[in-house]
């Protein structure tokens, strides 16, 4: 009889830990609700540490009626381009975030000293919650570290119409 209670207690503790882990990651329902009211969005790519002629980082910032693409190399602005935000621009971003399961990892994965990788960061907010979401991932070797999860490559393909000449702008800075 004593083993029975210990087994049940262990199961209860396991369920509590499992459910608390799920609560730390934003639920799909919470994301859907916030993304309906999206007012600001930022995507940032930081290149690996390579000599300045080859290093290219960029940031895409969407606010109200415009979207800005800024290309830098170690803090020096090489290109700065503004685009009109289409009427469905925020809807496009929100749908892509949901579709590609962009979210926060329950527990941040530490890099253990890996160096030389690239990083990506996403943040977005609403009028009521300007800093609602902020997460980053560091790609080093064949591993990903940080707290940003989801299919970032597919996400970027889905929002590409917002900055259709992204690759050309980056290429023009070389």
- As laid out across the biggest beta sheet, the strand order is 4-3-2-1-6-7-8-5
Rough outline: globular
Average pLDDT: 85
Structural class: alpha+beta
Q: What is the number of beta strands?
A: 8
Q: Which stretches are poorly predicted, pLDDT < 50 over at least 5 residues?
A: 9-24
Terminal CA distance: 74 Å
Structure annotation, total helices: 5
How helical, in percent, are the residues? Answer: 25-40%
* Rg, Å, rounded: 20 Å
Q: What fraction of the residues are assigned to beta strands by DSSP?
A: 35-45%
Major sheet: size, sense and barrel closure?
A: 8 strands, antiparallel
* Helix and strand pattern: HHEEEEHEEEEHH
Short characterization:
With 174 residues, this protein is of the alpha+beta class.
Please explain how this structure is put together.
The chain has 174 residues and is α+β, with helices and mostly antiparallel strands. Helices cover 32% and strands 37% of the residues. A hairpin with a 6-residue loop joins strand 6 (118-126) and strand 7. Helix 2 packs antiparallel against helix 3 and helix 3 packs antiparallel against helix 4 (152-159). It starts with a helix and ends with a helix.
List keywords for this structure.
174 residues, alpha+beta, eight-stranded antiparallel β-sheet, 5 helices, 32% helix
Topology of this protein?
Layout: H1 2-24, H2 28-35, E1 38-46, E2 57-63, E3 66-73, E4 76-84, H3 89-99, E5 103-109, E6 118-126, E7 133-140, E8 143-149, H4 152-159, H5 166-171
Antiparallel strand pairs: 1-2, 1-6, 2-3, 3-4, 5-8, 6-7, 7-8
């Amino acid at each position: 009889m004593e083993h029975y209670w210990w087994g049940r207690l262990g199961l209860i503790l396991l369920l509590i830990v499992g459910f608390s882990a799920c609560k730390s990651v934003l639920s799909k329902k919470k994301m859907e609700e916030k993304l309906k009211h999206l007012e600001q969005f930022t995507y940032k790519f930081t290149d690996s540490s390579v000599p300045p002629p080859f290093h290219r980082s960029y940031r895409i910032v969407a606010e109200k009626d415009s979207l800005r693409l800024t290309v830098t190399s170690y803090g020096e602005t090489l290109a700065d381009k503004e685009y009109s935000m289409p009427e469905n621009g925020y809807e496009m971003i929100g749908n892509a975030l949901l579709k590609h399961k962009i979210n926060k990892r329950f527990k941040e994965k530490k890099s253990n000293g890996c160096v030389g990788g690239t990083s990506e960061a996403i943040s977005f907010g609403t009028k009521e919650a300007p800093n609602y979401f902020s997460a980053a991932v560091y790609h080093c070797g064949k591993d990903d570290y940080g707290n940003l999860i989801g299919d970032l490559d597919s996400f970027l393909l889905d929002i590409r119409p917002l900055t259709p000449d992204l690759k050309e702008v980056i290429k023009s800075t070389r």
